[in-house]
UniProtKB/TrEMBL annotation, chain B:
Gene3D superfamilies: Aspartate Aminotransferase, domain 1 (3.90.1150.10), Type I PLP-dependent aspartate aminotransferase-like (Major domain) (3.40.640.10). Homodimer. In eukaryotes there are cytoplasmic, mitochondrial and chloroplastic isozymes. It comes from Astatotilapia calliptera. This is Aspartate aminotransferase. Residues 24-397 form the Aminotransferase class I/classII large domain.
Length: 432, 405
């Protein structure tokens, strides 16, 4: 059967049967099950009501309701586009050295003993998920290969719904949860968290949020960290820290990275996945970093060579655009000051929204405790609403939260604040 | 104890070159295009488009969708399959924006391991050409495939394609095996099947139910013509194959550092396509989740604007022509010097790389005595040649061939 016009052979292409004459190759491929988050987003997209409100997005939204680029970042991008020294070359698989150096410094602090004693490896990755994936893959060869370590990995309950899949894709099948968010307390329940970790087998990996926990916004205090690090050390567990929105919690790079610095100062080995998407408004640029703090300097080269090997079969090398911007800002004190100013504005706005929302709910007489709104920081917070109430909000009020009842604080603005407060109030007071 | 991974040869080569103090040293192991001045080249059209992007106020600053920029995916697929591709018109072509060509191979490999030839069939043989780009092996093995094997390809004696061997392996391999095919400008040999030979290859693959996974990293860069360099891919599509094509825009756009790749999927029908993409999205979600936008935006804007598109084609021709010039000059000089052996393969081969056919001792001579760096396999990158160093290189090859046996 010949196809006029498309056939490269004028005489016509003879085929064995009709197009795709053999059985379709992928008939066994079912449509992928839709994650609750995706279902939510599609529902929101299909919702034709003008009054719909999406509180489930991941980015920081400005008062105008859109993710935006920091002014400084826009300026720097323009500068970089006319920089004659930037060449189109393959970056190393581990990324730009200046970038990894800076990313390591902002997580550990410039004078960290681990840096001074050369026990640190930094790898630039295309985004946060990629950093977690690389870390997960590295874990497989971290321990003695003959023992073929395959878990378990402990994730907080709740956590980002893609985390389990990332570790499993890296070949680590055993994923467990540790108790974290307690609805009644509207915060972390340390006793139950410790119970779960006490019973973890040696060499288990524990994934902990360094700051601005996603999706609850509830973070461990410094004294809680002290207790946990003691437990990690005595039970020989391995900490994998998450730092996706550094500086957006306390407005300060260092304060948000305190847990990483604390663990490193205790001489612990650890992995830390970082992202610069949020704090630079570089969402589309996939700027991530995996920090490895090792016990001894002697394992640095082997770990580096394994990381290089793994990266080559995943994405080969990271993209450089966003990393150049971050490096430029972090390397220049004038830029740093300007950048910190813009970040402070973001953080203050989030804090203000939290305070106003809490006040509105109080004035409405909404049942439940809302102190946690202002006690927590960062972009996300957990309302404590249950499944039915979350559905009520989406079905009856067109207000979309994450399935667990958490929401993105920055998506609240002066235009929708009253409506949202009323909706939460109704969800909790209407008989369902 | 973390075991040290084996070092990658080409990077050691670059390191040694960098450390060499010899003033006339030549690096024929580079992996990127170089101008006649030996410099990397930002394509003029890319510079133009970068300015457009940086001054565009209406740009969306959100995370990209997991599958990537929709306009990028469709324009990239069109470029390899052709505007009038019936498969596109029949709505059975889709794509995933990936982190470079490697990323596209990765996602395709991960999908195949899960859903091709039964579920999670890690025993399906994956055939890569002998020789091939060293990373092919790593990508498929790390995706879980246990059996990555070579198919005969390069005939060292005749310095050309071992078609009989290739067809022989196609006839004798297990049904449903996956074959990684180089769309054009085979890396590292520079030797491509002719159109007639591709037809023979396709016939056997269709009959024996083998899966075609194209790797297209040099479209336009090889011959200077986008259509010509995509002929094999388009032929397979028109023959009715369901197949993948991993595209890279690193070389033909000079966007090495922005990681712009596209995995084009040609499925049986729209429904199948939908299922495949939905599963690929899940795979991407746990690999890098959202791809970077910069490179994809540059490519999209260029491909979808007629003026910029022509300018890009001119830029690509500039690169391809310089390579063709170096090839013909090198061959001419070797013939003029009376260097023993035949050197037709230098102009018969195409693309960035050439298998010179020098033996390991001769290669060592070039590296150690003449400070000319090339792979132990005798592969050279034509882009490392310039009008200034070509005489030195030709003379050195002459010396190596006559002095060292």
């Amino acid at each position: 059967m010949s196809r006029p016009g498309s056939s490269p052979d004028e005489k016509g292409v003879s085929q064995n049967g009709d197009p795709g004459g053999q059985c379709p190759l992928f008939t066994n491929t079912l449509n992928a099950p839709v994650s609750p988050e995706t279902r939510l987003l599609s529902a929101f997209a299909r919702d034709t009501q003008a009054r719909k409100v999406d509180l489930a997005g991941r980015e920081y939204y400005s008062e105008e309701g859109k993710p935006f680029e920091l002014r400084l970042v826009g300026k720097i991008k323009q500068q970089l586009s006319t920089d004659p020294t930037l060449h189109p070359e393959y970056p190393s698989s581990l990324g730009l050295r200046e970038f990894t150096r800076k990313a390591t410094e902002v997580a550990l602090g410039k004078h960290s003993r681990a840096i001074v004693e050369n026990q640190v490896l930094g790898v630039q990755t295309p985004g946060f998920t990629a950093a977690v994936r690389l870390g997960a893959e590295l874990l497989r060869c971290w321990y003695d290969l003959s023992a073929d370590w395959c878990g378990p990995v402990y994730l907080s309950s709740p956590c980002d719904d893609s985390l389990a899949g990332i570790f499993q894709a890296a070949g680590i099948q055993e994923i467990r949860e540790y108790y974290y968010w307690d609805d009644k307390q509207r915060g972390i329940c340390l006793e139950r968290l410790l119970e779960d970790l006490e019973s973890a087998p040696e060499h288990s990996v524990v994934v902990l949020s360094a700051s601005a926990h996603y999706p609850t916004g509830a973070d461990l205090s410094q004294s809680q960290w002290a207790v946990i690090t003691r437990l990690i050390t005595s039970r020989r567990l391995f900490p994998f820290l998450l730092l996706p929105t550094q500086a957006l919690c306390c407005g300060d790079m260092e304060r948000d990275a305190w847990p990483v610095q604390h663990c490193a100062s205790l001489g612990m080995e650890l992995l830390c996945a970082q992202s610069f998407s949020h704090c630079f408004g570089l969402y589309g640029e996939a700027v991530g970093h995996l920090l490895c703090v090792l016990k001894q300097n002697s394992v640095l080269l082997p770990v580096q060579s394994q990381a290089d090997k793994i990266v080559r079969s995943l994405w080969a090398r990271p993209s450089v655009g966003g990393a150049h911007v971050v490096t430029t800002v972090l390397s220049n004190s004038a830029h740093l000051v300007e950048w910190q100013g813009e970040v402070k504005h973001i953080v203050e706005r989030c804090m203000l929204i939290r305070a106003i929302l809490r006040e509105k709910l109080r004035l409405l007489g909404t049942p439940g405790r809302w102190d946690h709104l202002t006690q927590q920081g960062g972009l996300f917070c957990c309302t404590g609403l249950n499944g039915e109430q979350v559905e009520f909000l989406s079905n009856r009020r067109r207000v979309y939260l994450l399935p667990g009842g958490c929401l993105n604080v920055s998506a609240i603005n002066c235009r929708n604040l009253d409506y949202i407060a009323e909706s939460i109030h109704l969800a909790l007071t209407s008989s369902l | 104890m973390v075991p040290q991974a084996a070092p990658v040869a080409v990077f050691k080569l670059t390191q040694d070159f960098n450390n060499d103090q010899f003033p006339n040293k030549v690096n024929l192991g580079v992996g990127a295009y170089r101008t006649d001045e030996g410099q990397p080249w930002v394509l003029p059209v890319v510079k133009k488009v970068e300015k457009i992007i940086v001054h565009d106020d209406r740009l969306n600053h959100e995370y990209l969708p997991i599958l990537g920029l929709p306009e990028f995916r469709s324009s990239a697929s069109k470029i390899v399959l052709g505007d009038n591709s019936p498969a596109i018109q029949e709505n059975r072509v889709g794509a995933v924006q990936c982190l470079g060509g490697t990323g596209a191979l990765k996602i395709g490999a991960e999908f195949l391991r899960r859903f091709y030839n039964g579920s999670n069939n890690t025993k399906t043989p994956i055939y890569v050409s002998a020789p091939t780009w060293e990373n092919h092996n790593a990508v498929f093995s790390s995706a879980g495939f246990e059996d990555v094997r070579p198919y005969r390809y390069w005939d060292a004696e005749k310095r050309g394609l071992d078609l009989a061997g290739f067809l022989g392996d196609l006839e004798s391999c297990p049904e449903h095996s996956v074959f990684v095919l180089h769309a054009c400008a085979h890396n590292p040999t520079g030797t491509d099947p002719t159109q007639e030979q591709w037809k023979q290859i396709a016939e056997v693959m269709m009959r024996r139910k083998l899966f075609a996974f194209f790797d297209s990293a040099y479209q336009g860069f090889a011959s200077g013509s986008l259509e010509k360099d995509a002929w094999a891919v388009r032929y397979f599509v028109s023959s009715g194959f369901e197949m993948f094509c991993a595209q890279s825009f690193s070389k033909n756009f000079g966007l090495y550092n922005e990681r712009v790749g596209n995995l084009t999927v040609v499925a049986r029908d729209a429904d199948n396509l939908k299922r495949v993409l939905s599963q690929m999205e899940k795979i991407v979600r746990i690999t890098w989740s959202n791809p970077p936008s910069q490179g994809a935006r540059i490519v999209t804007i260029t491909l979808t604007s007629p003026e910029l598109f022509s300018e890009w084609q001119e830029n690509v021709k500039t690169m391809a022509n310089r390579v063709l010039l170096m090839r013909s000059q090198l061959k001419a000089k070797l013939q003029a010097l009376g260097t023993p052996g035949t050197w037709d393969h230098i102009t018969n081969q195409i693309g960035m790389f050439s298998f010179t056919g020098l033996n390991p001792k001769q290669v060592e001579y070039l590296v150690k005595e003449k400070h000319i760096y090339l792979m132990a396999s005798s592969r050279i990158n034509m882009c490392g040649l310039t009008t200034k160093n070509i005489d030195y290189v030709a003379e050195s090859i002459h010396e190596a061939v006559t002095k060292v046996q």
